[in-house]
Write a structure and sequence with these properties.
- This protein is mainly α and 87 residues long.
- It folds into two domains: 40 residues, no CATH class; 47 residues.
- The N and C termini lie far apart (38 Å).
- The protein contains two helices and no strands.
- It is flat, with a radius of gyration of 18 Å.
């Protein structure tokens, strides 16, 4: 987790309606949200829940945002894979 200066943290807390302007800011917001969810319950089940949620959020971001972007770039610039029997 990036270490955000304490003066900048109030604007980045999950409840703040402020958009992160740097990847480190976004990381801080996600981390503090996970910490608030855990609420001191540091055990296997709670940690597993948070990691599962993060993994699902990551996969959904890839599926909905990254994959369509990559598909558009393939059409724009041609594919680098010569053998695409799976497509």
């Amino acid at each position: 987790m990036p270490y955000i200066h304490p003066d900048d943290r109030p604007d980045l807390t999950p409840g703040a309606l402020v958009y992160a302007s740097h990847p480190g800011d976004l990381n801080f917001q996600i981390t503090t949200l996970c910490d608030e969810y855990l609420n001191g319950a540091v055990n296997y089940d709670a940690i597993n829940e948070v990691i599962g949620v993060l993994e699902c959020a990551k996969l959904e971001l890839y599926r909905r945002v990254a994959a369509p972007y990559e598909d558009a770039k393939i059409k724009e610039n041609t594919d680098v894979y010569r053998h695409r029997s799976f497509m």
